[in-house]
Amino acid sequence: EVQLVESGGGLVQAGESLRLSCAASGLTLDDYVIGWFRQVPGKEREAISCISTSDNVILYSDSLKDRFTISADHAKNTIYLQMNSLKPEDTAIYFCAADHWPLITGLVEYEYDYWGQGIQVTVSS
Fold first, then answer.
1. Long-range contacts made by residues 41-44, C-beta under 8 angstroms, separation at least 24?
2. Residue partners of 38: CB distance under 8 A and separation at least 6
3. Cα dihedral 99, 28, 74, 92 sign
């Protein structure tokens, strides 16, 4: 059974950094694409980034690629999202997601079957 567990969220001030972790079990990273999304209540889920470790492909949302970095640790079966220079508008629930490699785009919600429970990130001004 595939399980994804996010951690590392919390409350930070604008300009600070956070690193989110997505611990994956029941899957081998090289067989899956892992994505990060975020959602503000009442709004659609927004794609942030995805990583395909089998072919070393990383994609980012154009609006976030300058501040967010995705990475993978095969030894820990964990995907990270480093978020720098955080802004109040980054406040959201952050989710990681997974599905079998390959995906069509990797940055569309419906491509993913497996989702973590989400973790709150709050950025104060």
1. 41/93
2. 45, 46, 48, 90, 92, 93, 94, 95, 121
3. positive
Q: Which residue has the tokens 């995705």?
A: 70
Sign of the C-alpha dihedral computed for residues 69, 104, 4 and 74 taken in this order: negative
Q: Is the dihedral of CA 74, 75, 79, 85 positive or negative?
A: negative
Q: Average pLDDT for consecutive 10-residue bins of the chain (125 residues)? A: 97 98 96 97 96 94 95 97 98 97 91 97 97
Q: Identify residue 41 by its one-letter amino acid code.
A: P
Tokens of 57: 């492909």
